[in-house]
Design goal:
By secondary structure, the chain is α+β, with helices and mostly antiparallel strands. 51% of the residues lie in helices and 26% in strands. The protein has three helices and six strands, in the order ααββββαββ. A hairpin with a 6-residue loop joins β5 and β6. α2 (81-94) crosses α3. The protein is rod-shaped, with a radius of gyration of 41 Å.
Length: 196
């Protein structure tokens, strides 16, 4: 062998040894980094999916929270009699009616003696009301037109407070005489308003 071939062979051997000593570990670390990058990308996708799920849950919670607020407005924990009286008066004036008088009677429901029914009932009147909630009984006397009463009843129905109109009585009161007479009615409403 000549000297040139030996130098080439030695260089080739050194190159192969360097390849195994330096380049192979670098190549292995590059492979590991690629694997870690793929794992990190998958983790990012998982985190984005989780964030989307959290956003959906927050939105659902806010919708439920709004619904719960409506429930607490419809069935508050307190009676709030001044608010109710003001509300009845405002609804009357908005519908062209005159609120002549208003009485209220607090009837807190009691459990019946029959333990199997577990119903709560109002006592003291012939038309007992079954209700799981305590309530206030209002007697409202209004005067005005029949259309005004229809609007008033619609307003009570659209009201956020949970209430029932249990009784409607009316009588006609004519004002004036002849062709210019107006049909004015006097209405007596029995309204039940519930609370917690």
């Amino acid at each position: 062998m000549n000297k040139k071939s030996i130098i080439i062979l030695i260089n080739l051997s050194i190159s192969i040894i360097m390849l195994f000593l330096f380049i192979d570990p670098l190549w292995s670390s590059v492979k590991m980094l690629k694997t870690e990058i793929i794992e990190q990308k998958q983790e990012i996708i998982n985190i984005e999916t989780l964030l989307n799920d959290v956003r959906k849950l927050e939105q659902e919670y806010q919708e439920i929270d709004i619904d719960m607020n409506d429930i607490f407005l419809a069935l508050p924990k307190e009676k709030d009699i001044p608010y109710l009286m003001n509300q009845f008066e405002v609804l009357a004036s908005n519908n062209g009616l005159l609120l002549e008088s208003m009485k209220f009677d607090e009837e807190i429901n009691r459990k019946t003696e029959d333990t199997s029914s577990r119903d709560m009932r109002r006592s003291g009147q012939s038309d007992d009301i079954l209700s799981p909630f305590p309530y206030l009984s209002f007697e409202i006397i209004l005067s005005g037109s029949y259309d005004g009463l229809k609007g008033y009843l619609e307003s009570l129905g659209e009201n956020i407070r949970l209430m029932d109109v249990r009784k409607i009585d009316f009588k006609r009161e004519e004002e004036g005489s002849g062709l210019s007479s107006l049909s004015i009615f006097k209405f007596t409403l029995g309204v039940i308003v519930y609370y917690q």
